Every structure is written in structure tokens, then in C-alpha cells.
Amino acid sequence: KQEVTQIPAALSVPEGENLVLNCSFTDSAIYNLQWFRQDPGKGLTSLLLIQSSQREQTSGRLNASLDKSSGRSTLYIAASQPGDSATYLCAVRGDSGGSYIPTFGRGTSLIVHP
Amino acid sequence: NAGVTQTPKFQVLKTGQSMTLQCAQDMNHNSMYWYRQDPGMGLRLIYYSASEGTTDKGEVPNGYNVSRLNKREFSLRLESAAPSQTSVYFCASSDGSGYGYTFGSGTRLTVV
To answer: Which residue in A41, A51, A100 is closest to B31 by CB distance?
Structure first.
């Protein structure tokens, strides 16, 4: 059974810092990995999707990398801003048995203070 | 706006009451999902529908039923609500071809 772990569970940084959020998974037979952002009381917003054949994806100040062999993905946020404060979740979609059900990590709660 | 629409956004039920949460997507996605999110527990899959006409249990299906009414709509029913079902419920959809998942804005349900 796929297990997804996100470390750290919480992070507080001053504005302007570059930071890295981690997502690790136990089964490397994945189809893709998706990073989401969730603001308090809101739904999940997709940030980046990395297919299993890709190594990284970029969108603005966000860069997500994928290393299937080591079972890891990182979300890099450059020049963090208070508006980046949210919970960030990763979801791993399997590639076996025809199952496309994603497994979610529990998220990293990020606070960026001015 | 294209996406996943959930209704209602908020609901308070008394123990034993029933209700149906509605979900509709306009992206022509084949697969739809219902999750619940609780503090400290993360997102847990209740039921999913891989395609129109099929539904399957997820991790926490007890106390719930679902209906895939058509390709657009996937409803979640609580037949006899219990306080343990107090949660935030999210509907999601995907097209099954690797383009990821789209989530609705959620239904915050309180059972008293």
C-alpha cells in the first residue's frame, strides 16, 4: 500500500526566504504526482503536476521535482511571500492494477510572516 | 467557470437525519471522488466512480452511499447522520489520462 509522508508538518519563515517542502512515497511505481495548495476553509487548488516520466515542473516561483527511484518529490518556493501562507499537499497516483486512486500526504502548513 | 461544483457549502444536521451532498463537474471527466477531511487525519477517500455507471468503496465508506447519476454528477448520501460524520467533504474529478485532479470547494457538515 502506498504511503505518502510530508515533512515538515509545519513551517514558519520570514518573507523573502527560499524554501523547500518535501514529499516522500513508499512505492515508486507511480503514474504522476500532484502538488496542491489549500487555504484555510477552502478547497484544494492544483499547483503542479509531474508525470512519472518527468523530472520537474515549473510555474512562476514554484518548482517541483520528482525522483522516482528515491521516492521523493520536492516543492521549491522562491522568494516566499505572506500570500504563500497555506497548507501544501502532495498526491501520488499509482501505476499498478489499473488503480488511479491518489494517495495524499497530510500536508505541510506554511506560514510566511512579513 | 469550468470546474467542480458542490452544494450545499454548509449544513447542520441532527443525529439520525439524512441528506445528500451534490457534486457536478463540467470538464467531461470520467472519474469522480468523494473525500472527507478531518483535522489530523488528512484526506480520506469515501467512494469513487471510475466511470459512469460504476462506483467503488474507498477507505471509509461506512455510513455513506453514492450515486453516479450521469457523467457529470456524483452524489453522496448520509442515510442516518452521526456526530462522527462531522467533517469537511470534498468532491473531485479527473479525466483518467494523467492530467491530475480538480477539487470542489467543499461542504462543511456538522452533525449535532
So the answer is: A100
HSE of A53 in the Cβ direction (CA atoms, 13 Å)?
Answer: 1
Which residues in chain A are contacts of B90 at CB distance < 8 A? 43-44
Among candidate residues A41, A40, A70, the one with its CA nearest the CA of residue A55: A70
User: B100 pLDDT band (50/70/90 cuts)?
Assistant: confident
| Closest of A111, A89, A100, A88 to residue A30, by C-alpha | A100
Using 50 as the pLDDT threshold, list the residues of chain A that sit under it: 98
DSSP string, B50-87: SSTT--EE-S--TTEEEEE-SSSBEEEEESS--GGG-E
Which residues make Cβ contacts (< 8 Å) with residue A29, sequence separation at least 6?
Answer: A94, A95, A96
Which band of pLDDT confidence, cut at 50, 70 and 90, is reported for residue B81?
Answer: very high
**How confident is the model over B4-56, as pLDDT tens digits?**
999 999 999 999 999 999 999 999 999 999 999 998 888 999 999 988 989 99
Alpha-carbon distances of A29 from A6, A76, B65, B99, rounded to whole Å: 18, 23, 31, 17
Annotate B10-22 with three-state secondary structure: EEEECCCCCEEEE
Which residues of chain B have a CB within 8 Å of the CB of A105? 42
pLDDT at A13: 96
